[in-house]
Structure formats: structure tokens, C-alpha cells
Amino acid sequence: IEKDELVNRLEQLNEAVRTWDSDAVALVTFDDGWGDVLLVEDEFDRLSNLQPVLFIGQNHFTTPVRTLPMQRLYQYSADTGLVIDDLRTELKTMSEEAAHVKLDEMGVDRMLEPEWLLTINEIEKLSTKGWVIASHGHSHENLRQADNLEEAFSVLTESIEQRVYTPWLAWPEGRWSYETVESAKKGGFTRQFGLLDEPHDGPPTGMVMRKIWS
Asked: Average model confidence (pLDDT) for the chain?
């Protein structure tokens, strides 16, 4: 989405929300910590009926900041012109660690702390401006395939609370099941977010289904 188009959509959404109730607020969410959210940072200062939310993975709180497999792949594709459709599909079936190994074997750079990801200081600045900083999970993969989720989510919730961030969870790739939702609830996540575009049964009470703007 071009910036002007995105700002236009945000303005239209803000006006629509205002018609529901002058005090109503709609959540506008951004995943994975891409630095280009700073291009619209000031827009939210004036669009008072919109609440920006950042869903950030634990990879962002390592030193140095570690890019996600798909971020590595997208940048590699941009640099080389590589057609990535089949590889993208393959990586999405893997665990985060296995996907990193696959990219390592291909010679794709780890891209630690690239300039196109938010820094911790920038995240903290957005937090002080009222942006909600929430979780995109402890590992960016299909967590329906993971084991010991309740324990992992409990550890993750403790980390989030130590950072004074909100215990909301956006499921990576929008992939969840009723069992994983219950594990996340027991692990301490008070609100969970899926994707309308991801095939699913009727979401459980309290699950927020997000629409992707493209």
C-alpha cells in the first residue's frame, strides 16, 4: 500500500468509527516490527478514534535484533530478483528455527538489526505515545504444531509483563485452533487476534478477527 492510500483509508476509518460513537475506538494493527510504521506515526496523533497496536515477536527483544525467516527471504528476493513463491510456501510449513537453517544453507544473510526494522528505542517511543505494544508469539511459525504451548505462553506472558506491555497475542500467520486458544488463555493472554483471511471455524468468544489491508 502506498502511504497516501494508507492515510486515506485511515482517515475514512476514523470518520466511520466516529459515527458509531464519538468515543469509540478501532484498533489498527501492525505485525512484525517493520520500521515503515514510523511513516504514519504522526497520523495517529490526529486520528483520535484509532488505536495503533504493534504485534512484535520475541525475536525483536534479542541482542542483536534477529530478523524473522520471511523478512530475510523478502529482502533476499528484493536484492536478487529471486522468485520466492514456492520457497515462501515451504518456509511457512517449517518451524522458525528450521526455516532459519534452510536460509542459512542457501547463503541468505542473517540480516541482524537491519535499518528496516524498528529499534527498541523506537518501540519504547511509540509506547510512550500511546501505541499498544503486544505479542506476536514466542516463535513465528504455525503454533498449532507446537508442544507445551501453555508453558511457553506462561513464560512469554511474564516477559511481556516485565516490559509493561499488553498481554494480547496475535497468532503468527493467523493460525490457531480451539486447543491453542485455550493454552494461550491459561498462559495469561487476555485477548487474542486471528485473521479473517485464514480459513477457520467460528472464532471463540473474545477472539478478534482482523482484516488485512492490501
From this structure: 93
